[in-house]
Structures are given as structure tokens and as C-alpha cells.
Amino acid sequence: MNQQTAAARYVGVPRPSGARGARLVALSGLTAMVMVTGIGAVEWARHARLSTGVLTGVWDGWRAAVWEPWFGIFIIGLWALQWRFPARRQERPVNRGLAQDLGWFLLSPVLAVTIISAYLVVLGSGVTTVLGHHTLDLVPSLGVWRVAVLAFVISDFVAWCSHWMHHHVPSLWFFHAVHHSQRQMNVLSDNRQHVVETVVAATIAYLPAWFLGLNTALAGTLAIATIYVSAFIHTNLRTNLGPLRYILVSPQAHRVHHSIEPQHYDTNFGTVFSWWDYLFGTRYAGDHEYPATGITDTSFPLETSAGPRQVLTTWGAQTLHPFRVLARQW
To answer: How far is Cα of residue 285 from the mean position of the Cα atoms in its chain?
Structure first.
């Protein structure tokens, strides 16, 4: 793909070629998600369990996401590291990008976690209704944690495929561009993720675990297991992990993925494991580059202030922006 084509896609213009197959797969997957969750909702409502099941799941998921002390400690530790060893010194540890991402961090659980918790309850019911309990059920032979690791690896591969499609299917890219809009990478940047994309990610993490025979609770846990890794790789930290970069995604590799420079477009799609990019030829060769990040869509509502009122207003504008772009496209 030449630079002109890549640059055009990054300002919201659909890529002219190469996306037809990805678009068909994405449309098929989204259609299946809607159908299965619809069946699940009907099934739960018919047995009069929807209200209690969903509300319990919502509360547990929201509480785990918002009041998890270990994650708070982890974030503070990463912030200290990026302050001491910054990838780009011109990106200060405290800036308006961090303020905006803090807004996403505080506001997204209220919206995303509530929706995801209810969605996973309904999705589990829908999958069970459609497919019954015919999973591989590897737990008796391999044990819970071996199956959990296997599910984690499979989920990461599916996440790689989904990430690739989010960069090649225009309608998916409009939602993913919200995440890429960050020009000042920091420990909270991963929280800048549109709720539509979060629903897709939760589905990807949940389904492989369910098919491998994990119970619903553990399968749901895997849906948020990458939060710690995601916070780490989005940090403004100057490290490529040395030899470990051939196995795990590093902050340097993911910064290249977020790069605003055309030579870095469509590279480094890995979320946890970097070997998928080596395997499919999407790994960028440079391991010591720390470029500026962001998108070139001039219509995107970037943050202009760190004030609480402006952060709230910008969060709403960024959340609505993909729908406005789609409306213009249609």
C-alpha cells in the first residue's frame, strides 16, 4: 500500500481496494453477534432471569473495573516509570492528553463496563441457546489454567485479526480512530476506546474461552485480562523489551503502531504477543524509533484543554464522532 492511500484512509476516506474480503468478514461477524445476543435476550426474558442476572453482572463488573486497587497501584508505578524513562521527553508526564484519558478512564466504566457486563450475560445465554453445551470441554484433561492459557493465546490471535480489520474496513476504522487520536501517549491511553469497539473486543475474548469449556465466570474474566498489558504498551516508556520483543508487544512497538508517520501505517497489530506480526509480515523492522502519534483527520474533536468541563465535552464529542462520520458516509 502506498503512502498516499494510507494517508487518505487516516483522514476518514475509505481505502479504495483490498478491503472487500475484510469488510465481508466483519459484516458477517457483526451480524452473527447481533443475532446471537438477540436470541440470548429473548431466552433470558422468557425465563424471567434477565433483570436479576444482568443487574448482578453489571454491578460486579463495574465494581471490579472501577475499584480494583491493584490496577491503581500498577498505573501509578507505570506513570513513575514513564516520568523517569520517557520515550519522548517533549511529552510531559502531566498534560492535557493525560487529563482527557483520565476522563475516559472515569467515564468509560460507567458506560462500557455496564454495557459489557450486561452484554456478556446475554451473549452467554444466546450462545448456549444456539449451540447448547457442545464445547470442546478440555478442562477435565488439561486443567482449568492450561485451558485458560490456551484460550488467552487463541483470543489474542483473534484480537490480532480484529485489529487488522479495524484498520482495513472503513466503518470499523471510524470507531478505532477514537483510540488512535491520542497525541500524548500515557498510562491511561488504552482507556480511550469507543464502546462499540469494546463490545467487539469483549466478544473476541469471551467466545474462545467458552468454546474451550471454561465456565462463564472465568471466560468473562479473560475478557478483561489484557487490561494490564494494554496499559503497559500504551505508556510513554522508552523500552523495546530487548529479546522479549520477539514474544511480547513492547511500548516501542505499539507506539510505532500509533505513529502519525506514513511509513509506520498498518504495522504492529499485536495486542499481547508480537509473534503474530512476525508470522504475517506486519512487523515494522525498526526497534528503536519513537515517533509522534495521532491521526490526521482534521474534523476529529481533539482535546484543547485539561479543564474538567472541557474534558467532559470533548469525551462526548469523541464518542459521537464515529456515528456522525458514518451518517455522512451513508
So the answer is: 24
Q: How many Å apart are CA 190 and CA 321, to the nearest integer?
A: 18
Which residues have a Cβ under 8 Å from the Cβ of 54 and sit 6 or more positions away? 44, 117, 118, 121, 122
- H or E segment at 110? none
Query: Which set of grid coordinates corresponds to residue 120?
Result: 456478556
| Angle separating helix axes 170-180 and 20-46, nearest 10 degrees | 80
Q: Between vectors from CA 269 to CA 263 and to CA 274, what angle results, nearest 5°?
A: 110
Q: Quote the CA–CA distance of 215 and 194 in Å, as a whole number.
A: 28
What are the pLDDT digits (tens) for 284-323?
Answer: 999 999 999 999 888 999 999 989 999 999 999 999 999 9
Rg of the chain over Cα atoms, rounded to whole angstroms, equals 20
Domain residue spans of the chain: 3-329
Q: CA–CA separation, 16 vs 8, rounded Å? A: 10
Instruction: Return the C-alpha cell found at 305.
Output: 484543554
Determine if the pTM surpasses 0.85: no
